[in-house]
Structure formats: structure tokens, C-alpha cells
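Objective 1b: paired records.
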Amino acid sequence: MTATATNPASQRPTYLNHAYTLWSWLSTTDHKRIGMLYLGTLTLMFFIGGLAATLIRLELMTPVGDVLSADGYNKVFTIHGVIMVWFFLVPSIPNTLGNFILPLMIGARDLAFPRLNLASWYIFVAASIMALYFLLAGGVDTGWTFYTPYSSMFSNSNVTGVIAAVFIVGFSSIATGVNFIVTIHKMRAPGMTWFRMPILCWSLYATSLVIVLATPVLAISLLLVALERVAGVGIFDPALGGDPLLFQHLFWFYSHPAVYIMILPGMGVTTEIIACFARRRIFGYRFIAFSSMAIALIGFGVWGHHMFVAGQSAVAAIVFSLMSFLIAVPSAIKVYTWTATLYKGDIRMAAPLVYALSFIVLFVIGGITGLILASLALDVHVTDTYFVISHFHFIMVGASVSAYMGGLHFWWPKMTGRMYAERPALLAALFIGIGFVLTFLPQFWAGYLGMPRRYHEYPDEFQVLNVMSSAGAGILGLGYAMPLFYLTWSLRHGEPAGDNPWQATGLEWSVPSPPPKHNFVEIPVVEHEAYSYRPFGAQGSERVESDEEIQR
């Protein structure tokens, strides 16, 4: 992909090079600075959620409840779940990397609705403050799923307040999703056809469709819980003609597609990193692009596999089981295309690629165990055990956060104009990958043996596995903390990055680092596909291989 015009060196001063006032940040409509605002806010929420996870792992090191009471444990894992799911994992890549990179990737000067973009951040901050207040001032004991009838009829905790916060943050997600959809449709540079877009743009587009279509369902279901608690309307209370299983159907109709809100952007980030560090055109570009759309579509038809033991009909259970197996097909296509792209590539083992490879490994483990949960008989055996906990952490946390960290390291030089220290970055990537496996792999075994989730006390025979998990969590926590220090250090002391330190293709690498306010002096004209790579250090142009040539 080439452009007819780039920014001259004189245009290099940008948001990080000027002494901007606090108000200039709080009133900005520059998509790049809003992405950085999200980065700071989400980092704070991530470590708050991580602190709650630390308390959980400390409690589970011994079979008896000697750190937290039963009620305290319930409130701590609710804090962990609510913060990590709705205030970090769902918005992590779209609202940070997506905000910063998407307009640059498609040759636009900003998102379609800059003021709406800023408003989405303010909504997110307001909802975050509200959630933290109610979670810490009295707490919530329902878990992050707010299952009825306990949440709507029996819990005396701050359920309504936290539900209101999650309801509000949904507007932030919807605003971002609408912004991305319109931007991709209407603001692509001349010559950038749909099949010249980078794969990350396809992933963000598919993710935005899921956000816009699914988030209102979550909002309605949570609003109904609050309405029943406040007004006593019989929606989920059987004594008033309600049905508690209705909430599960509504909740999982959103929450299983929400898994793909978390993972689809990570798939796009992984594709960009692998193409760059393997120096190869993406194998099967159209297959991997359409697989993102297929995942978004099929994802709306698998929610019932969360309810195999909830009393649904045998026919419905079989249909949901088959749909859950079907969604593995486009996911497998992606893994195949990544592997084929790496095959015989001119590979440079930098930190972003280590994170991308970690994403693939963790995603494959999570995907295979997901097939186990899609099997009716096996799911009945491991439902509500630590097997399920481990499975969704491999997907939602292990894979998703690895991709987020990989993308952050990949585009950090573009975002800041500075390079980070490579050795600490590689060490942090290894700590995260190894620590995550040590933390959650033993939980598969504990769950298969019957250790139930949501209990702060457990039989003695599970202690060894829990101690292993807690030890792995220590390594994992160190790996997550390290980038906070060396990336911050790089802002002042890092080597100048230059415009394109990775020799990557794409319009974002044709502008200065960091990019100027309006990105491009002139809107570029795209003449080639997204991934016309040549070996590291090579000069001049190189003919791009076709899919058929790569396959041969």
C-alpha cells in the first residue's frame, strides 16, 4: 500500500510535543489523543480489577476461608468480574488502539463524529466512577452475571447502582461502534477498496456491528432487573408471573457475542503483527476478512450453550451445541492463515510477535476447551466448575490481553515517537505467557475433578492445584506490571523511533511519529494492497506474491 503524499518533517510537532494544558486534553476531539485518554483510564481499571484477582488467588491458596469471609469473597470476585469485563476487556482494543490507528489506516483525518468520540470517553469515565463507588462502598455479592432471582429479589447489596453503571457504559461502546462503522463506510481514502483495507479494519468493523446490535439487549435485561428491584414488577419473579431463566437468555444473547467483541479486535491486531514480522503478504486475505464477519454473525446463535443444565429443551440444546461447533470453523481459518503466513517467513522475533504467538497458543487452548463445553455430555460434567473459569480466561484474558499488549508494543513507536527497551519487553511477554499457563492450566484439572466455582472454601485435595495457580498468578502479575514501567520510561528516555521502525506497510506508517493533529497534509491515494512486504533491510520494490504462489 502506498500513498501519493506524506507529511514533511516540519509537520512533526504533535500532541506529545506541545505543552498542552489539561483543558486541551479534556476538550480534544483528536482521535489520537482520545485514544491516549482511553489508554490511561483503561490501565487504571485493569490494575483495579487485577488487585481484586490478587485477593482471590490469596484466598484460594488454602482450603479454608482465612483471608476473606464468604460475603467478602463474593464481593471481591464481583469487583474483579465487573471491572475486567465491562471496564477493560470489552473496550480495551477498540477504544485505545482502534481509536488511535483506524483513521490513520484508512487515510482519514479523524473519525466521522469527533465530538461523539470525546463524549464516549466522558460517558466511560462517569460510568467507571459510578461502578467503583458502588462496588467499593458496600459492594455487590451477585457476581458479574447478576443472575436472577438472587439479583432481582434477594440481594441486599448495591446491585441497582452497579447495574446502572454498566447500563451507562454501554452508551460509550455503542457510540464508538457507530463511529467506526460510519468512518469505515464513508471516509476511506481514494483507492482504498474493501479488499485493500488492513485486516484490523475488518476486525474492528465486525466488532462494531456486534457492539451496536448486541449491547442494547444487555441494557434492556439489566434495566429489567433494576425495575424489578425498585418497582416490584414481575419480570423474573415466578411469584409474580415472571421467569428467572428469561434473564439468562437475554444476558447470554449479549454476553456470548461480547466474547467476540473482546477477541475479534485481537485477531486483527495479531494479523497485522504476523504480516509485519514474517515479512509476508497475509495468506488467504479474503478468507480471513470474511471469517471475521462469519464469527460476528454466528456469534449471535450460540448463547444457549451457557444453559445446557438450565432446563432448556433437548432440541434447543442440540441446536446450540451444533452452532457452537460451527463457530469454531472461521476461528480455525484464522489460525490456519496465521500459520501459513509464518511458514517460511523472514521472521524477526521482536516483542510484538512474541505477544502475537502467545495469543495464538492461548486462543487455541481456549478454543479446544470451548469445543469440550459445546459437547452436551461433557458440559454437564464440568458446568459451574473451574474448568469453565479456565476456559473463558484463556480466551477473554489470556488471548485478548496478549493481543492488546502486542498491539500496544507494535504501535507504541507510532503513538509516542519513541522506542521502548526491547529486552524488558521480551521478558515481560515471556512472563505473561508462562505465568498465564501456570495460573489457569491447573484449573482445567481442578474443574474436571469437580472443584466448583464461586466458593472460597474447598476440599483439601484441591490445594496443590490452587497453590500452583496462585504461584503462576504471581509471575503473571509481574509480567503485566513491567510494561507500565518501561513504556513510561521510554516517553522521556527512549530512542527516537522514526516514521517506520518496523518497516511495516500501511498508511499509518507513512506519517510522522507521533502523527500530526490532522494526520495527513493531503488525503493519500491508495494504489496497492495492504501487505506488500519485502525482507527486513531490503531496498526498492518487490513483486507481491499471489495466494496461489504462496500456497505452492
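Objective 1b, second protein:
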Amino acid sequence: MSKDRLYLFDTTLRDGAQTAGIEFSLEDKISIAALLEQLGVDYVEGGYPGANPVDTEFFADRRTRKATFTAFGMTKRAGRSAANDPGVQAIVNSKADAACFVAKAWDYQVELALGSTTDEHLEGLADTVRVAAKAGKEVLIDLEHFFDGFKANHAYALACAETAIAAGARWVVLCDTNGGTMPSEVGAIVKEVLAVVPGDRLGIHAHDDTGQAVANSLAAVEAGVRQVQGTLNGIGERCGNANLVTLIPTLVLKPHFAQRFETGIDATRLERLTHISRAFDDRLNRAPARQAPYVGASAFATKAGIHASALAKDSSTYEHVPPESVGNERSVMVSQQAGKSNLVTALARHGIAVAKDDPRLEKLLATVKEREARGYSYDGAEASFVILARNVLGTLPEFFAVESYRASVERRHNARGDLVTVTEAVVKIRVGEDLLMSVAEGNGPVNALDLAMRKDLGKYSAEIGDLELVDFKVRILDGGTGAVTRVLVESRDDTGERWYTIGVSPNIIDASFEALYESFTYKLLKAEAARATTAA
């Protein structure tokens, strides 16, 4: 029996940006889009071009290779045509492949929020779809307040859906905007919508205000929709959105869904799920939820006793899926074997082949666990993991050694009488037999240290010429005056690759310098690998 295709639509970069305390920079968006590409979602909605400088710059280039790059915006404003609406035109003229426009599906909201009539709104919806479709965009209409609107005036809600399809929209997305609809209601209403819109052109966009966004999404799929929207780790406005990190493995691994539906995510991509979820949290400078389904540190944890005894005899007793299927691991009676399996997989991903019975793995596993207990997290810093692994395995070259460094910050009045802050860094580096000293001023101690290190790296100076520090995040792990600080540094070069390194110390400058040092080392490892490839 052939399976129905389900399409996964990620709104992390748009819905997620509405989360309290989260503000995405351009570099954040580029990095997160790359994570979503790794995961294998079908659509990446990047934001609202024209609404702010970050989103406008983000849409100046195409940011995905396989996923459909999608812009979000509103249907045209009353009193002007879509062809003359700046908001619509910003989306149409962007590098996006698809355009998702929000429209009101509740007559009360049309009159209250837009001050318009339902007829005017339907006309504007149709005009917007036609203009975007004519420009070559794949068009989606997100029907805001759909379920509440359907219950208040089902004829108007259905008219919105019919109008969008008739005008040329590829998808009509039913949005549970305030997250208050029950799963049984979602299923029943979707079945009524199917009378006017086929399921393979319907999507579900659920919010989590009653903790049922995932359940509502699954109910909609069972009822007939074929596109599911959500965010990484369920972030979003108020209580968040449907959590794709929970939805995806449920759709892929649970026979009830897996036997009837297929997605673009295969077993290999699914094994990256835990890593992607935790790397995303690292990017947001927040601790991963330990009890998150599938990917949490406690998702497959069992205390000693009768549960552990039963688990040893039959893992399915307390594990609904194998932990390794989502890249997680069992946490019971110190499962060294599970840890080794994860290490071997992670090493292979970086071209480091190590047999599972290699005794060096024991040392590497113990080192990783010890360092993570001190505050390191390698899910979001794979470059640092490569350096640590090669160091423990005895295959890490010593390109250069830092003899000492010093960073000073001085606040004073300049010659014009303006109060300024000046940062200076001095770094002594040994490259082979040569001792090199460099001094640089920068915009803060990390920038000054970065500039001083790259000023003279001896015979390696040319190899770091295109190295660029693009982002820097600090997280305090323990409170108080003796707080442990974790620093995550993002770097890139002319190849387009981005990598992440980590440093941990009670001293923020020490933590920063450690991450900076490892970024330089990883760049030199890349250069060495490139030379070896050329020679071969």
C-alpha cells in the first residue's frame, strides 16, 4: 500500500522569534537554517522581509539548499492593490521560493483588528495570492484564528479556504492561534474543511496554550491534513508552538503513523535529532529540558531497582523507541556501551575511524563525561569535540602553543574629552622554535585577543587569512561570585563552513580564549586535511 506524503514546515525563525527573551541575529538565523537543513524539513520559514533589517538581509540571499525557503507576511492592506502594497512586494521581490501570507478566518477579527469587511478581506486575500503566484512563488495562506472562526461563523471560515485555493494557493494552513482547541474538535473541523479543500493542500499550525499542540497536529494529520507546522523544541509566543522535535519521531517511528505516512526524514537524519535539539538550545544560551520527549537527558533514564532489572531483560519494557534511533542514549547502570556507540558514530561523522573495541574509546568517553560535568557541552560545539577526540586519540598536531596572554581594559578621556573604553591584548605564541609576540587593540577583550593571535602566527598566518569570528555567546552556569562561565564561539571561512568551539572557566576571558584557541586549531586542521586531499 502506498503511503501519503507528509510535509514538514518549520517556523522557528519566525514564530520562534516571538518567544519572550529570544532575539535572533542574522548569524543566528543562518546557523539555525543550517540545523534545519540537517534535520531535513521540507520548508524553512525565515521571517518577514521588509519588517526589520535582520529579516530583510536574511532574505537578500537564498539560505537553504534543499528545503523550500519561505517568507512570511500579511495579505495586502485595504485601499490598495497587492501589486502596490510594500509588504507584499517585499516578499515577492525577496529570494524566497515560497510566500506564506496570514489572513483572518474569523469575521470578528476582521472587523475588530483590521477594521475591514469580510468581503474586502476575501478580495484582498485573492489579490495577494494571484500576485505572488504570478511572480513564481509557491503560495501558502495561513488562516489565523481558523478554529475559533469556524465555530463562530463556519461559512466565512470555509469561504477563506475556498478563496485561497481558487486564487492559486498551494496550501491552506489552519491555525489554532490561541491554542485553545481540543484534539477532538480539530479532527472534526478538519473533516468538514475537506469538503471544500483536498487534504493534500491543507496544513495545521497549532499553538501550545493547553499543552496539546502536538496532539492537535496529530489529530489533524489523522483527519486528513498533509502539512504540519511547528518549531524546534516548541519555542514560540506565549506557551510556544507544536514541537517538531516531538512530532517528527512520532510520525516516523510510531507504526500507527509510519505505516500510513512518509516524510523526507530518513533514519540517518533522525539519529541527528538529539544533537540538533541540544545544539539549538546552546545557540539560545539555555539549558535543554531534561525531560523533553525523545531527546531529553532523562528521556531514557531509569533508576536502579525493579525498572532497571526489567529493562536489562527487555528494553521495550520502559523504552517506547530505541534511544539510538533519535540519537539519544540510555541512562541506566552507567551504560558505557551505549556511550561508545554514540562516540563511534560522532567520530565517523568527522572522518575519524575508530573500532568499537579500541581501548582509547574508554578514555575518550571518560574524558567527555568528566568535562561535561564541569560545564562543557559538545552537542553545540562539534569542532571542540573533534579537537578533544584527536587529542585523546593521540592524532592532534601541535600547530602552535600559547606561552602567555594578557588583556587589559582601560576607561579614560581621549584628546577631545570624550569618555572611551580601550581594550588591549598581548599574546605570546610559540610556533616550532619561534617565539612570537603580538599586540592589538580591539572592540572588547575577545576581539582584541582574536586580532592579536591572527597578527602573527608564523608559517600558519596565510592559512588563517580567511578565518572570521562571527558570533560569541556567554552563559553563566552557576550563580554567585564564583560562577562558571561557558562561552560558545562561532567561526567561518571562505569555504562557507561554520564551526563552533567552546570554553569553560570561572573567568570569562579564560573561557573565551579557550574557545578562540580551539577555533584557530580547527581551522588549521581543515587546512591540513585540504593539503592531504590535494596531495592524494
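The chain has 19 helices and 16 strands. Residues 304-309, 332-338 have pLDDT under 50 and may be disordered.
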